[in-house]
Structure formats: C-alpha cells, structure tokens
Inverse folding.
C-alpha cells in the first residue's frame, strides 16, 4: 500500500477528556479529521480547493480498533494516509500513538466525494486525489457491515435535537457529534467504567440542523471479558447511522 | 495591578469554529480556562495540588468585551493573570489577541474556592493563592449584576438534558457548555449573522449530570447598531445562571 503518510502531534488538554481522564472518543474523531485536513492543506487540496469543484469529502464508515485511550495531559501522535481508491471510494487509515510510539488506536475509513448541489456522491476527481499518492485498485477493502438491530431486541433510547454548535464551518454536522449521541445514550456509570475496544460506524444519510436524532442502543453480548452494543440513529423513523461497539472494563480514576 | 502574567499561543482549527468561520464562544471559554490551568501548573498549584486541600476553583462570573472573534485558521495569543483577591474572591483577567497583537477579547472574572465535600465556598488558602502574586485588596472590582428577566417579558426557551460528555475529568459540567445552552436557544439565522460584543454571565448554582436545563432568552433592545438579549437557565424552576449579551451584525461567510 502506497499513500503519503502525514503525522502531527497534539497535547491532550482538559476539555479533550471525560471523567475517566482519557481523551473522549468524540474528541479523538475530531483530531483524526484534523490530521487529514492538515495533510490536505499541505498537499494543496484543502477544503477551499476542494469546494472549487462543487464537492466535499464525506466519510461513510469508520472501523476503529482501540488498544487504549490516551490520557489527558499526554501528547499523542496522529498519523494518516490515503491508502487506496477506486472510481468512487477512498480508503483512509488513521493511527494514534503515545509518546513512546505505542499504538493506541488504529482506524480504517471510507470517504466519498459529495456534490454540494445534488447532495449525492459522484466519481472521484483526479486533481483532488492524485496528490495523496494512494493506490488505484478495483475494489477497496470492504469494511464489515454493522449488524441490524432486530425488532425483538428492546432498545434504550434518547433524543438529541441538532444544535447550532454541532455544525462545522460548512454547515454540516461535525462527525464527532454522531459519536456523542451514540455514546451518551449509555448510562454514565457504564461509560465511567468501560472503554471501547472496537467501534464500527456506518453513515447512511446526512443528519441536518433542525433534525431530532433518536439514538438507540441494545446490549447484545456480555461475558467476563467483553460487552457488545449495537446502535442506530434515526430521524423520523428513518435510519441515518448504525454502529456496533465492543467494550472492556477499566478502573475509573 | 500586580499578578504574574501568563501567555500561550493556540492555532484555531476547524472544530474550534462555527458557521461564521469564527472561533465559537464556547471554545474560547475552553481556551481561556486552559490558559489559567496551564499557568497554575507552571506555578506548582495545578488541579492535583489544589484538590489535596479538598477544594477546587469555581468561576462565579465572567464579563467579556469582544472587539472581534478570531477566525478559524489563525493563531491567537491567550493571556491571563490573577489581578486581585480579598478573603473569599479572586479576580482574574483574560485577553485574546490576534497574530498582529490586536486585542480581540478582554474578560474579567471572579473565582472562589469550593469545598469538595460541602459544595460551599470557603476562605481562600494562602498556599494556593500566593504563587500568582495577585494584590490583596479589601474589595475586588464588583462586576455588574445581570438584570433580571421580568415576568412580563415573554421568553423563548429550549431544554438541554446534561450529557455525559458535558462533564470534565472532575465530574463537573465544563463551563463552556453553559455558553452552548445560552446561545443555542437563539435562532441559527441570528447566530450566523451576529456576534456578541459584550457578554456578562453569572453562575449561581452548579448544574449537574441528570439535570434538565431550561435555557430562556428575551430580546430587550434592538437598534440599528446594537441588539441586547437577556438570558436565564433554570433547573426545576430554580435559577442556576443568568446572562446578558450585546450583539452586532456581521456579514456571514
């Protein structure tokens, strides 16, 4: 796999973290996206350049493997590279390492180019793709689909009206908020004593300002060493996002 | 005014901003608090040291004057100093300047030490105060009280259940979320075309996880050059926070 690799460091400060003294998943998503934005700027294909073509990059799926979440006060190294693409899809990898170089989080993701007017995905544009040096392939790695929640699985839910500050500079809901809605629905007591080990999230439709997002969760498996949860987010009964998560127990600080 | 001055730089990235391409007020509050935390660490009286005394710093009021909000992509300089104190109150000033050194935001604030067990304020502790070199005075500057919303002023309101990720590492609601609840209640169209010029916020009681915050706003004055809004936040009908804000029109990007 080719693709230019980009790395940068980030000091994790108090507002990056949660009660477990670890960086929160929503903030780590912000930071991964920041690394890819900074790489794009460096290669001359930042947001401004991309929008000249009437399009924007949109993530359709993340699959994260989490060895450990970084601690607040530590400095992490964020790395990313566009590894492969076909006519419509890009595959981008991310990793987060601690100060000693130990891998804390690895993520694979799929991105598409969405037309700003039609709000539909289109063919990738060579001028916006070539600078990353990613491999052209017939089929990009198929990330596993998120299993559907079946009707007989009773879910717990909360509703989240989209807020003004959930929108980024382009008026889209910032990706990290999906993770906030996804996780907040779980009891605080659970979130204080567990961290995710694997997180697979598929975005189906764009959540927008004015929407009321219903976030649902069901625990599908619980053993001594692992707990699994299945998630979905709907707007007016229509599925916008699905996710599955595996958890391990940690001792709270 | 004495008090050791502390400064640090911060690059404003995409998730620090909102649709106006300016840094959002909630994020600027995060950054001001970060500067004061970094100063405290440098002086050997960081959060860990303070908590050894069974207490924590709590802000009771901010008064901000905003010349302009910094743009996303720019680097700002954050400065802070503890300027004065009496037996119970500390006065701390903050400023944010752009790369050319122009002042964008000036804030004055009052802090107290809250006992972790009793959740009540107590006398300031010399060991935690002396390192800042602030002046001991009889009376600290009285920041203006926020005018009360009267019963005949019809307000617009939204409700905000406190979320898990609203809590900081100590389990307190991070200050910046008060500003999110305060501002989000205004229409998106208004927030996209106006920026605050003055913001006065008084914290009366601690909002906690499990609370449903009702954020109310009323427009009290509107001329060609200035709009004023009055705000309050209640939990079960009890006032937890009050604020007033002045606004000017800006051209949206």
């Amino acid at each position: 796999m080719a693709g230019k690799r980009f790395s940068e460091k980030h000091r994790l400060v108090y507002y990056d973290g949660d009660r477990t003294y670890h960086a929160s998943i929503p903030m780590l998503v912000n930071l991964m996206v920041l690394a890819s934005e900074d790489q794009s700027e460096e290669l001359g294909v930042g947001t401004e350049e991309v929008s000249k073509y009437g399009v924007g990059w949109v993530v359709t799926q993340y699959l994260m493997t989490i060895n450990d979440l970084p601690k607040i006060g530590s400095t992490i190294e964020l790395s990313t590279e566009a590894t492969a693409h076909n006519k419509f899809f890009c595959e981008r990898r991310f990793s987060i390492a601690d100060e000693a170089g130990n891998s804390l989080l690895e993520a694979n993701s799929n991105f598409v180019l969405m037309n700003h007017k039609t709000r539909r995905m289109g063919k990738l544009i060579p001028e916006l793709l070539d600078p990353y040096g990613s491999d052209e392939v017939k089929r990009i790695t198929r990330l596993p689909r998120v299993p559907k929640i079946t009707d007989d699985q009773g879910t717990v839910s909360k509703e989240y009206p989209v807020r003004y500050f959930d929108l980024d500079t382009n008026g889209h809901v910032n990706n990290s908020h999906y993770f906030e809605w996804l996780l907040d629905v779980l009891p605080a007591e659970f979130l204080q004593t567990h961290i995710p080990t694997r997180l697979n999230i598929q975005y189906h439709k764009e959540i927008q300002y004015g929407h009321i997002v219903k976030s649902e969760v069901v625990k599908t498996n619980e053993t001594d060493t692992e707990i699994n949860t299945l998630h979905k987010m709907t707007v007016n009964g229509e599925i916008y996002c699905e996710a599955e998560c595996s958890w391990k127990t940690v001792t709270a600080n």
User: Anything to note?
Assistant: Chain A touches chain B through 35 residues (CB under 8 Å). The radius of gyration of chain A is 18 Å.
